Amino acid sequence: MKLMLAILLVSTFGAAGQERTPERGTEKTYAMSMALKAGGKVYNFNGQGRCLYAPAVSIHGMRAERWSAERTGDGLAASLTAWRPAIGTDMVTVAFTIDDTRYSMSTLKIGAKGTPEGSGTVTIAREGTAGTFTFSGTAGSGTPISGTVKCAGFGRPSEEGGD
What we know:
Layout: E1 29-38, E2 41-59, E3 62-71, E4 79-85, E5 93-98, E6 101-106, E7 119-127, E8 130-138, E9 144-151
Antiparallel strand pairs: 1-2, 1-9, 2-3, 3-4, 5-6, 7-8, 8-9
């Protein structure tokens, strides 16, 4: 079964209390789990992945925080990115492929930039240095999609950038 998966999520994240800030440029792997669904199709992964946090990046010219999770190593690729814009509403973008079928959802729109496709929401919960991303929505094709991605920790990207 051929399965390729790429996910982008855009959301809000509210961390309560004090959190440990990872060192800049650390891109080591962390324990990660992914449980993703598209209609009746399921994708599960438990292993190592790259999880990153950038406190100040730009998306469509808007300052934002960014969290990302990427499955690394041999096997099927999967990635997730969550954003918290400095101003505006929560946004989510998801795109992945299962059995040669692509599913995509995007609520990303800042001013005139971005083209929404489908609809959905995401929540992000921090548990100490770990984090859990949970999303639910409808792909642009009308297919229900949902998933949970858990990272045991977050490093800092080598370069913080934007758009």
